């Protein structure tokens, strides 16, 4: 194995490298997604991808079969056909599970962990089940807001709920298939 000269910036700690982000390119070199380094290494070890750019300073990762260095960018060797990606709009229908995934379970009013969703315009007043009208909401904020609009409840949204990136579903499918 090559011994390389360490240089600034610092390498990730041994137990945190798996959390660093790696850019994944399609075989055609188009950017597909960012994934965690442990998934990227799985792709490299399975022969599904190659390293395009190594992360600096070099950070060695050893497996039983081979040694490699932590990548910054990898490229899939087989072209992934993305197909038609249907547009998603703020007024498209959303499900609570989809909204929680979009908001990463962070409450839209206080940013703490949320397991439920809030209708920004209350359901009782015709608030629809759409990406633009649903936001992840913790139990405390949900109870405090009750059947009111944020203005009436004196609460402020931390971000404007939007439709998710239409690529997101395709990206999840790809990583389920390639690096489960
Ligand atoms: Zn909250």
From TrEMBL:
<dbReference type="InterPro" id="IPR003615">
    <property type="entry name" value="HNH_nuc"/>
</dbReference>
<dbReference type="Pfam" id="PF01844">
    <property type="entry name" value="HNH"/>
</dbReference>
<feature type="domain" description="HNH nuclease">
    <location>
        <begin position="94"/>
        <end position="143"/>
    </location>
</feature>
<keyword id="KW-0540">Nuclease</keyword>
<dbReference type="InterPro" id="IPR002711">
    <property type="entry name" value="HNH"/>
</dbReference>
<keyword id="KW-0255">Endonuclease</keyword>
<protein>
    <submittedName>
        <fullName>HNH endonuclease</fullName>
    </submittedName>
</protein>
<dbReference type="GO" id="GO:0004519">
    <property type="term" value="F:endonuclease activity"/>
</dbReference>
<dbReference type="InterPro" id="IPR052892">
    <property type="entry name" value="NA-targeting_endonuclease"/>
</dbReference>
<keyword id="KW-0378">Hydrolase</keyword>
């Amino acid at each position: 194995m090559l011994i390389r000269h360490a240089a600034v910036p610092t390498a990730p700690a041994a137990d945190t490298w798996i959390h660093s982000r790696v850019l994944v390119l399609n075989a055609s070199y188009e950017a597909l997604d960012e994934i965690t380094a442990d998934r990227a290494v799985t792709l490299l070890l399975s022969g599904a991808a190659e390293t395009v750019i190594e992360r600096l300073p070099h950070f060695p990762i050893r497996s039983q079969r081979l040694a490699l260095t932590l990548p910054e960018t990898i490229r899939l060797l087989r072209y992934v056909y993305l197909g038609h990606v249907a547009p998603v709009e703020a007024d498209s229908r959303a499900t609570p599970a989809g909204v929680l995934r979009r908001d990463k379970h962070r409450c839209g009013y206080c940013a703490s962990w949320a397991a439920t969703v809030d209708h920004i315009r209350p359901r009782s007043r015709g608030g629809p089940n759409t990406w633009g009208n649903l936001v992840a909401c913790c139990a405390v904020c949900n109870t405090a807001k009750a059947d009111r609009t944020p203005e009436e409840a004196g609460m402020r949204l931390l971000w404007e709920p939007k439709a998710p990136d239409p690529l997101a579903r395709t990206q999840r499918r790809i990583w389920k298939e390639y690096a489960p």
